[in-house]
């Protein structure tokens, strides 16, 4: 739908209504984004797998021919946790909203919507997802080295295990979002092995302790009683 530009944020629009897709794409392009469009749910995962660099964000319709939006949301979140997701839907029931967010969506927009709102929400979600992984300023930040599977606090390597790094990575890519223990287990163990929820608590405890060795008075991983955990960087 538009010519890729590596200097622009890449947005994938998954929408089976051509008029809506064209309108959203035009507004995104006018706001400095580069967009790509897919109209069938079955095309999404192969398209993502084939790319060497994936889009920063997916605008994902709930009702699609082929694979539905909720299934795609779950798969994208598990396989490419760094990709942000905004779901688009005409179904306004609260249960759908909660289910979509529980499966990993970063935001939810109900139809009919203003294309300006889509652009504004896109910018807001991208800001939130980048806040946790932007380069440190003056060496006083928590930074992920994803290629080296390291986390650096004030430039100090925290010495995380692979599971601890994966947990921190998932939460840092969605700062402020609450993850249930079950969702975190899905990211810890991709083979879906059966483990106790206490296993998550144990890994979180160790992760907190390692962060506290560098930042004894800062709490960035917070418990949400009865739900799970979230990464909440201090203002």
Which features does this protein show?
Rossmann fold, alpha/beta, 11 strands, Arc Repressor Mutant, subunit A, 2 domains, 40% helix, 19% strand, single chain, disordered N terminus, five-stranded parallel β-sheet, elongated, 235 residues
List the helices and strands and how they pair.
Elements: E1 10-14, H1 18-30, E2 34-38, H2 44-50, E3 57-61, H3 69-79, E4 84-89, H4 94-102, E5 107-110, H5 115-131, E6 142-145, E7 150-153, E8 156-157, H6 162-172, E9 179-180, H7 181-188, H8 197-214, E10 221-224, E11 228-231
Helix pairs in contact: 1-5, 6-8
Structural shape:
elongated
The total count of strands amounts to: 11
Please report which band the strand proportion falls in: under 5%, 5-15%, 15-25%, 25-35%, 35-45% or over 45%: 15-25%
What does the radius of gyration come to? 18 Å
Structural class: alpha/beta
User: Helix proportion of residues, in percent?
Assistant: 40-55%
- Look at the structure and name the CATH superfamily of the largest domain: Response regulator
Number of helices: 8
Going by CATH, the architecture of the largest domain would be: 3-Layer(aba) Sandwich
Write down the overall mean pLDDT. 82
Distance between the ends = 39 Å
**Strands of the biggest beta sheet: in what spatial order?**
2-1-3-4-5
Low-confidence stretches: 1-6, 135-140
Just give the CATH class of the largest domain.
Alpha Beta
Q: What's the number of structural domains?
A: 2
CATH topology of the largest domain: Rossmann fold
Q: Please summarize the sheet with the most strands.
A: 5 strands, parallel
Order of helices and strands: EHEHEHEHEHEEEHEHHEE
InterPro entries: CheY-like_superfamily, OmpR/PhoB-type_DNA-bd, Sig_transdc_resp-reg_C-effctor, Sig_transdc_resp-reg_receiver, WalR-like, WH-like_DNA-bd_sf
Organism: Halomonas rhizosphaerae
Modified residues (4-aspartylphosphate): 61
Domain Response regulatory: 10-126
């Amino acid at each position: 739908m538009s010519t890729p530009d590596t200097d622009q944020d890449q947005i994938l629009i998954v929408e089976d209504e051509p008029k809506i897709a064209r309108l959203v794409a035009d507004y995104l392009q006018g706001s400095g984004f580069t967009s790509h469009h897919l109209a069938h749910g079955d095309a999404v995962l192969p398209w993502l797998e084939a790319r060497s660099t994936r889009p920063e964000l997916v605008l994902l319709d709930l009702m699609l021919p082929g694979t539905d939006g909720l299934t795609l949301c779950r798969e994208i979140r598990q396989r490419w946790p760094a990709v942000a997701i905004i779901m688009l839907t005409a179904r306004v029931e609260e249960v759908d909203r909660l289910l979509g967010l529980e499966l990993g969506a970063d935001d939810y927009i109900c139809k009919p919507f203003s294309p300006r709102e889509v652009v504004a929400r896109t910018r807001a979600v991208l800001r939130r997802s980048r806040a946790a992984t932007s380069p440190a300023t003056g060496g006083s930040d928590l930074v992920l080295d994803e290629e080296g599977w390291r986390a650096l606090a004030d430039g100090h390597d925290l010495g995380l295990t692979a599971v601890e790094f994966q947990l921190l990575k998932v939460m840092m890519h969605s700062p402020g979002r609450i993850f249930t223990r079950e969702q975190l287990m899905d990211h810890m163990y991709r083979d879906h092995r059966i483990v106790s929820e206490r296993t998550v608590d144990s890994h979180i405890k160790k992760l907190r302790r390692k962060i506290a060795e560098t930042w004894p008075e800062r709490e960035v991983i917070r418990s949400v009683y009865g739900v799970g955990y979230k990464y909440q960087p201090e203002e």
